[in-house]
Amino acid sequence: MEYIDIEKDLIPYRFEIPLSDAVFTLEIHYNSEYDFFTVDIEREGAVLVTGYKMVYGVPLFAGCVDDRLPMEEIIPYDESGIHQQVTWETLGETVFLYVFAGDSDGE
What we know:
The protein is mainly beta. Helices cover about 0% and strands about 40% of the residues. The chain has one domain (about 5-100).
């Protein structure tokens, strides 16, 4: 299963990732006071979503309605089942941002 590797030591940082036949820019931030991460996403220089909080088991950008967002679901998940939270301690250790194929109805 494919996942996006987050380099916590570089946070806040931006990187590009190809998804849905386009290149997206993700920007990762960390709130040390409350121990959570947020994600911003851009496509072709256009800001689509800012400050989206990573929640374990919930696809990034869930509830955001914008046809320019990637079709794939990016879900913080721990395949080992050890952790069920996205924290500084767990992200990149057992919890990873897994990429699941989007709608495959042929469009």
